[in-house]
Design goal:
It is a single chain. It contains 2 helices and 4 strands. A hairpin with a 2-residue loop joins strand 3 and strand 4. The N and C termini lie far apart (about 40 Å).
Amino acid sequence: MHAVCLIPSESERSTNMPIATIQIMEGRDEAAKAKLIAAVTDAICDSIGARREAVRVLVQEIPKSQWGIGGETAEALGR
């Protein structure tokens, strides 16, 4: 299976600054977050043809006490 990727013109690329916001539960180490940022950046570049230096990835860590799962906090569930 081959994917066809339409690459925007230079003028379209110059105004393209995609921003991805990812919310994750606290607790992952810096290496894991860096790997996530790199992978999301690659996916954005590959899928919409954005320039790598234009992509922004924001990782928001949510405390386990503020992450609800089935009516309980992740902290209470031992996650």
